[in-house]
Write a structure and sequence with these properties.
The complex is a heterodimer of chains A (486) and B (401). With 486 residues, chain A is of the alpha+beta class. Chain A has 13 helices and 22 strands. In chain B, β2, α2 and β3 form a beta-alpha-beta unit. Classes of the chains: A alpha+beta (486), B alpha/beta (401).
Chain lengths: 486, 401
């Protein structure tokens, strides 16, 4: 039986109340008031599609042995690299091995479900194998646009395989159209959309039913057979209309998180699926539908094994971990929509030496350290010689993946002198659980949130961006440990 | 055990420019000023110099690499000029080079000179540079010097369970004291006494370090001419000799940054270098025997921790000593009698030699009474380069007879 073996979600910490956007930009386009309800999740200045995909993947892979991963698929329409496989960065961060299959899925908002289908087919074709799908998007609308109001940032992840399946994959039905409701050319930063009523009526309201009915016809089902229905559609009216397909019980239809997160693009069906799986019961039928250049409709059936994965992973704890982004200007600066003065330190040219990045890829991407076979000391980085002054053994390391180990704060500061898009730059020394320590940037916190001895998690983030060469570099930062929500 | 450097080298003359925003002078101009004063004090001519060691840290933005710029600027007579960079210990390293050159018998008279022209960088604070190599650029925090040193304070307070308010009170006293002393010093960059309220209430640079917890960025140069006691006696018969008693350098092994043993609240290199320096100088109890010090007060918390790392205050006891006035100008061991980095600023390559300049003149009793240390026997200088978890420490001890 092939199916979902784990799931994960990610919602960035900062939320922008849409009335703040309206208050700042309503003068230009008063009609955005129609979408000015609730809040949207905003990626921190050091987050992008890759980092959020990794965060969702880390959530999904909690407690799962990375050496068993055979494929890592990454889906996004906002991948930072057009040439350089983004999925390999994600795979490296997740601690997957290097003899694996990777692929980027892009260019359509249904790329997330298409990646999931490909992963399921990979698992079906390769018995015993496991694949991970990570989707994330960080889409931009111009100031005072509908997209700016609607879009949110976030990620979703799903692991698939044929062992310990929590939701069996039963079948799918896809439709693909060159239906251009939204588009973004290769050289464009902002999303562009066509007339909204057309998108609503001819898009969502016709393609989603077409895909659902197609699936039902193919497998002899009725739309009302599903216990949980997951699909994105940010038009409230259209959503109500589509919901009628699934019967009388509105609780069957998974909340689209528009009021709390916004539309996260390719990630959205997977993010909503993660939320649905948090409370799914054995035997339930789940319908998952994407939307974008067509639809993928997928049918899953929840197994008894679901209980094992209902351990806090998913979306709830990320939703609970929130902080207000209290001004619109900060949002503009973080998303590169307004250039701030960062002083000379912000202008330092940091060139990336790719041969060095290659040599250190394990410790940079996966925060792999080493455990000395001679004395047992865990350390990062593991270069050639053991750091224990009483040992000093050479080339005796057993690799240790530290990214999911967590740690504690050893010392910290908040630095107003360092160039930062969110000053003060918070950083400090972190002791890894199990031994070793290093100095790391902290993120998703203020100095007041910190104390020596407090627990931290590690989060894969943008380390620095080199605008001269359009290179985004990534590394791990410390964040205050994310509390479980039961 | 090697004999060490004790009493093998003496200072023949010294020079030091006024430190500050020297918009009027280039690095080369400052070198000429420091050299001129040092030669005059030594009573020799430039042609008598047989070798030179030059301390400069941030080379690309002031006098370039190698020794040529300095040699050209001072028109040195085709002698060896060795440029040294060992972070903030560069000045003392240059002095060590010259002293070892003389002690080895290779030269009779050698020059140690250091310079830095930080005000031409355009930065407030030290310029951003990949000081720890490209690998660190990829993974190290987006850090500055105050941020890295500020962590000493959070770790110190946690380790000794001393409330941050108490640590901050002692840090404030450190800066207050340096400003009291610096106000009396015509060569200092900052010459205003400031109140404790002003210091404690200043804007935060890197928590818990406020503006007055940080030393300034400055331009300056300092020079020392060294020779053997025999040469000194020939050149300056019947004059008191300021002798080198100890020169020690310690460099991090890497364990502080990555191994769990370090407490984060002390500087291991200072502990190692000072222990060796006391042994070299024949000092058994530094708290009783050291007469005065110039230490690397890049930040007030650094000076606080250094008092323990130099084995003068007991662990956890520096705040008490500081607040009791132990290190004030009229205390048992005056620390920063010239105002320190706090008031001189920190032209990196020059600072170590500037500190030696202060000890030298104090030992010779040349300063006016209001800032003279009474009957000094041993003067210690200390430089700390790098960051608390990865650094270079230099210790030098001088005595007069």
């Amino acid at each position: 039986m092939v199916g979902i073996t784990s799931f994960g979600g990610y919602v960035p910490r900062y939320r922008l109340n849409r009335m703040i956007v309206f208050g700042s930009m309503g003068w230009l386009n008063p009609v955005i008031i129609t979408n000015a309800r609730g809040e949207k999740a905003v990626a921190n200045f050091d987050e992008d599609a890759i980092t959020m995909a990794v965060a969702a993947g880390m959530d999904c892979l909690r407690g799962i042995d990375r050496s068993g991963i055979d494929a890592v698929y990454f889906a996004s329409t906002t991948a930072p690299y057009r040439e350089r496989q983004n999925a390999n960065i994600v795979a490296g961060a997740l601690g997957a091995g290097e003899q694996i299959r990777t692929a980027d899925f892009s260019a359509s908002l249904k790329a997330g479900t298409t990646a999931l289908l490909s992963a399921l087919e990979f698992a079906a074709a390769n018995p015993g194998s496991r694949a991970v799908v990570c989707a994330a998007d960080c889409r931009l609308g111009k100031m005072a646009s509908t997209q700016e109001m609607v879009f949110g940032d976030g990620g979703g992840a799903v692991a698939v395989g044929d062992d310990d399946v929590i939701a069996e994959y039963k079948g799918c039905y896809s439709v693909s159209y060159d239906f251009v409701d939204h588009l973004r050319g290769a050289n464009t930063k902002y999303d562009r959309m066509w007339e909204e009523r057309w998108i609503r009526d001819l898009g969502y309201q016709s393609f989603i039913p077409e895909a659902v009915n197609g699936l039902c016809a193919k497998y002899g089902l009725s739309p009302t057979d599903f216990d949980k229905v997951v699909y994105p559609c940010y038009y409230g009216g259209a959503r109500k209309k589509i919901n009628t397909m699934f019967g009388e019980d509105p609780s069957k239809v998974q909340d689209d998180m528009l009021a709390t997160v916004g539309d996260t693009g390719t990630a959205h069906p997977l993010l909503m699926l993660a939320a649905a799986l948090e409370t799914a019961q054995p035997g339930q039928k789940i319908l998952l539908v994407s939307f974008g250049s067509g639809c993928d409709a997928m049918w899953f059936e929840v197994t008894e094994a679901i209980a094992k994965m209902q351990d806090g992973r998913g979306v709830s704890r990320w939703l609970a971990r929130r902080a207000d982004l209290d001004n619109y200007q900060k949002y503009l600066v973080w998303r590169g929509m307004a250039p701030p003065e960062l002083g000379l330190r912000g202008e330092v040219d940091k060139e990336t030496r790719w041969s060095l990045v290659w040599r250190d890829r394990k410790s940079i991407l996966g925060l792999w350290g080493g455990k000395c076979k001679a004395c047992g000391t865990q350390q990062w980085p593991a270069k050639r010689m053991c750091v224990n002054p009483d040992c000093g053994a050479i080339d005796q390391f057993e690799p240790v993946y530290l990214a999911d180990k967590g740690g504690t704060i050893f010392s910290y500061t908040g630095d107003m002198l360092a160039a930062s898009l969110n000053p003060p730059a918070v950083y400090g020394t972190v002791s890894f659980n199990g031994g070793g320590r290093t100095v790391l940037d902290f993120t998703d916190c203020t100095v007041e949130d910190l104390a020596v001895g407090n627990p931290v998690d590690f989060s894969f983030r943008i380390k620095f961006y080199d605008p001269k060469r359009d290179i985004t570099n990534y590394f791990w930062k410390a964040i205050p440990a994310v509390e479980e929500v039961k | 055990m090697a004999e060490g450097i004790r009493d093998k080298v003496v200072i023949l003359g010294m020079g030091c420019t006024k430190f500050g925003e020297r918009w009027d002078k280039s690095g080369g101009d400052l070198l000429v000023d420091a050299l001129t004063e040092a030669l005059e004090d030594a009573g020799i001519e430039k042609k008598d110099l047989q070798a030179a060691w030059l301390g400069v840290h941030i080379d690309e933005i002031n006098i370039g690499k190698g020794g040529t710029y300095a040699s050209n600027a001072m028109h040195l007579p085709f002698i060896p000029v060795t440029r040294l960079d060992n972070f903030c210990a560069s000045g003392t390293e240059a002095f060590r080079g010259a002293a070892y050159g003389v002690a080895s018998g290779a030269y009779d008279i050698a020059l140690a000179i250091g310079v830095e022209k930080l005000k031409d960088t355009g930065y407030g604070g030290l310029p951003d540079s990949p000081a720890f190599g490209q690998e660190m650029v990829m993974v190290g925090p987006n850090a500055t010097a105050p941020g890295m040193f500020a962590q000493l304070a959070t770790a110190y307070a946690a380790k000794h369970k001393i409330p941050m308010e108490r640590v901050k009170e002692a840090m404030t006293h450190v800066s207050w004291k340096s400003h009291q002393n610096g106000a009396k010093n015509p060569r200092a960059h900052l010459r205003k006494a400031v109140s404790k309220e002003q210091i404690a209430g200043a804007p935060m640079v890197a928590y818990p370090l406020g503006l007055f917890d940080c030393c300034g960025v400055s331009d300056g140069a300092a020079a020392a001419v060294v020779c053997t006691p025999e040469v000194f006696k020939k050149l300056k018969p019947n004059e008191p000799m300021v002798k080198v008693k100890a020169l020690q350098i310690a460099v991090s092994s890497g364990e502080e940054a990555a191994y769990d043993r370090w407490d984060g609240a002390s500087i291991l290199t200072t502990r190692a270098a000072s222990k060796r320096a006391y042994e070299e100088a024949g000092i058994k109890d530094p708290r009783k025997e050291i007469s005065m010090m110039e230490v690397h007060d890049c930040f007030s918390i650094t000076e606080l921790c250094t008092m323990e790392d130099l084995w003068i205050s007991p662990d956890g006891g520096a705040p008490d000593d500081i607040l009791n006035g132990f290190f004030d100008l009229d205390g048992q061991i005056p620390c920063q009698p010239d105002g320190g980095l706090k008031c001189f600023g920190h032209p990196i390559g020059a600072s170590g030699i500037r500190m030696i300049f202060e000890m030298y003149n104090q030992l010779l009793g040349r300063w006016p009474e209001d800032r003279a240390v009474k009957n000094p026997k041993f003067g210690l200088t200390h430089n700390l380069g790098g960051v608390p978890n990865n650094n270079v420490c230099s210790i030098a001890i001088f005595g007069v007879d």
